[in-house]
């Protein structure tokens, strides 16, 4: 049973459904530099092996369908496949940004990563316990904008409904947009952000999914 609160689909999404679906269907993937990723992990035998497998399938770009491919492989239940999905999510999310490779390296080297964190998180998502997975995911150098990418691809690979949302700056900006366009009051309830000099959202501080909405209903973190 899902542990999230369901909201009606916003009018804007209903009206622009075809345009939004076209973006997904026509996406060719994100470019990244396989050599730089491999150089950064050349002393990590396990991750280097995972990278070689990912690069063989995605030599120049990595797409949503590519990451889902690695998600489907986790159905074997092996830790190696789950770890490889996490790495594919990080490559898809970070691309060529050097900070992403450093953050991924720090996350992968953390002791918690060598335990059951990813497998337990996957089980929670498969059981619809998205909020619980969010609250209990603690991995240094891996903030919500990135660990929810792992959530999303687990959900996509196992056909979970509602599908976990990738909680990044794009979602924060859209929540702010909905508040203005449709009279929602979600932005200040759901997210804390940093802003640049022009008052534009520059990064996420946290998503406030530990709280409550209305009469005891849990805050939403899923999509249909």
Q: Per DSSP, what share of the residues sits in E-state strands of 2 or more residues?
A: 5-15%
Instruction: Please tally the β strands and state the result.
Output: 8
Give average pLDDT, whole number.
84
> What distance separates the N and C termini?
15 Å
Spatial ordering of strands, largest sheet: 1-2
The best one-word shape is globular
String of helices and strands = HHEHHEHHHHHHEHHEEEEE
Largest sheet: 2 strands, antiparallel
What would you report as the Rg, rounded to the nearest angstrom? 18 Å
The helix-and-strand class reads mainly alpha
Uncertain ranges = 210-224
Tally of alpha and pi helices: 12
How much helix, percentage-wise, in residues? 40-55%
Write structural notes for this entry:
- The chain has 12 helices and 8 strands.
- It has a domain at 29-159.
- The chain has helices at 11-15, 17-26, 34-40, 45-57, 64-73, 79-94, 98-109, 117-126, 130-136, 144-157, 169-182, 187-190; strands at residues 30-31, 61-62, 163-164, 191-195, 201-207, 212-213, 217-218, 222-223.
- α5 packs across α10 (144-157), α6 runs antiparallel to α7 and α8 runs antiparallel to α9.
Give the arrangement of secondary structure elements.
Blueprint lengths: L10 H5 L1 H10 L3 E2 L2 H7 L4 H13 L3 E2 L1 H10 L5 H16 L3 H12 L7 H10 L3 H7 L7 H14 L5 E2 L4 H14 L4 H4 E5 L5 E7 L4 E2 L3 E2 L3 E2 L1
What is this structure, in a nutshell?
54% of the residues lie in helices and 11% in strands. With 224 residues, it is mostly helical.
